[in-house]
Description:
- The protein has 652 residues and is of the alpha+beta class.
- It folds into 3 domains: 49-78 and 153-244, Alpha-Beta Complex (Penicillin-binding protein 2a (Domain 2)); 83-143, no CATH class; 248-294 and 309-613, 3-Layer(aba) Sandwich (Beta-lactamase), CATH 3.40.710.
- The protein is built from 21 helices and 24 strands.
Amino acid sequence: MYSAYDKIPVPIPPRAFSMLFFIALAFFLLAARLWYLQALRGASFAEQSKNNRQKTVFVPPARGIIRDRNGVPLAKNRPAFNIQMFLHETPDVEQSVERLSSVLDIPVAELNDRLKRQGGPRFRARILVRDANREQIEKVLANRWFLPGISVANYPIRYYEFGSLAAHVLGHIREISKHDLEQPEFKAYYQPGDLIGKYGLELQWERYLQGRRGLNSFVVNAHSVKIRDLPDQVSAIPGNTLELTIDHDVQAASDAALEGEWGAIVAMDPRDGEIIALSSAPAFDPNVFTGELSAAEWRGMVSGKEKVLNNRAVQEVYPPGSVFKMFLGAAGLEEGLITPNSTEFCPGYHKVGNATFRCHKRNGHGRVNLDQALTVSCDVYFYILGQRLGIDRIHEYATRFGFGKPTGLDLIHETPGLIPSTAWKKKRFAGTEQARWFPGETPSVAIGQGATTTTPLQIAVALSTMVNGGKVFRPYLVRAIYSHDGKKKIEERKPEIRSELGVKEEALLAVRRGLEDVVNSPQGTARRARLPEEWGIRVGGKTGTSQVVALSIQTSKREHQHHALFAGYAPAENPEIVVVAVVEHGKSGGLAAAPAVRKVMEAYFHKTRGLPLPEPEGQKEVPRVAAPAPSPASSPVAPLIQEPQIGEVATQ
């Protein structure tokens, strides 16, 4: 019996224990879930919740300005509009893309391809149409209720005000590639959809030009319409300003001189290595790269015979032809193999073994000294000098002048060119009968033919070395780097002497006397390079003709015609500018290249000295000047009207 104070045991059935266990387990799981949501994922869900009412977007910086030496902007920025998509605001991405395709008449596959190229978080904007036109913008805004997640945003975009002017110097920008994003120099800062320099100075100076992006935070409603800005804003910092050595007006004259031609022009200050103008033709308009460029358009730019994106001044090599003779003359004087007054007889040909090397003048020039040999571009004189020097000494002196190796221009990968030697041939033809250098190969090299190839920029550096007393400068294009407002100088480039020529000053002066006669003597091959007589500025230089095909198969077709070259400088007594022009298939340096150089020099001296530009070509005849008295030791030389053709080889 139990008393009134005793607890009466109540039997609990086993199923009640089971129910209590499951209730406890449920509370435990609920607590674990709450802990997971609060402790582990709390920040993430808070951010997502925040994004429902707050949006933070990147603000792209304005790219740094590129200006010429006088402050003229060559590459700047303009406002543009991009049509973009935010995936986290798009319930059905596929449907939105299809609707946008219908609205803008852009293939769905093309829009999807643009989406695919841009990865990253869903809240990052994907650019579907870059630099949209007014009609596209109006269509998107008119249909925005049917295009969830798609909006129009204002962005600064690169703008090249002068179109193709100095295009190969400035370069262009394009959307960053997946490969670029994996590189250490881009991975830390850049993101899909960014535009970066892909060519020219835009590429080489990317880290200075890019700037730093900002952050813009604001509150939006359920329809992603901005209500108000939030205080945590980070302003974008524009890129730095590049000040170039290029002169806009001289560059414009250089580009115009190549209009309708294929070729290159380099204008350089021989006193410090500054590039005043650098042109390559045909050119392109960098503005086409700031928008959407189709695969077909891209292929058209990089392929085909025109090679539009190839910088012919730096990347294309040409046999220098008779331009090479001035450097051979300096080597002969330095080695004591000739003197300014020693002569050679030119009968119109020169024999080496069983081979006959002909002069461009079939009946010969008679007896000529160095000055006259340069003036009339006598091949035989330099055949003989080349044989005396030998191929290895030719190689040595040419290398001293800067041939056969990159000049060091900080722009784009340079083609080194080639100055042959016995060592080169032994390596090139190792294990064959051709590995030995044959005496009959030297005459062609002596007149800038055979295996000899150079870039127009190398010729400009070499001629600058000739006229500045023997200093081999590294050419450069950027004078200084300034802050984005262009006021504070951050970095300044200084002239750099890479090496000294090691040739006596009197030898260089003797060659220069001949180069002055090339332009100013009635017998000279470059009379069309003369500046107006009233300016009182004498020009010196050397013409050249670069053989394209063997003379035995040459036809009247343009692609079979010789390349035309002229390398000139002025004023002759104290040179301020060196200009080298190559006109592909121009037939003759005196006819095609010398006038191009004259136009560049006219623009330069008009700009620097305020001299009046001459009348348009064809309305005013270039005045003739009296020829210097011939050397007593030489016979008279018949006058030539144009640049002679290169010599040819006849076997007996």
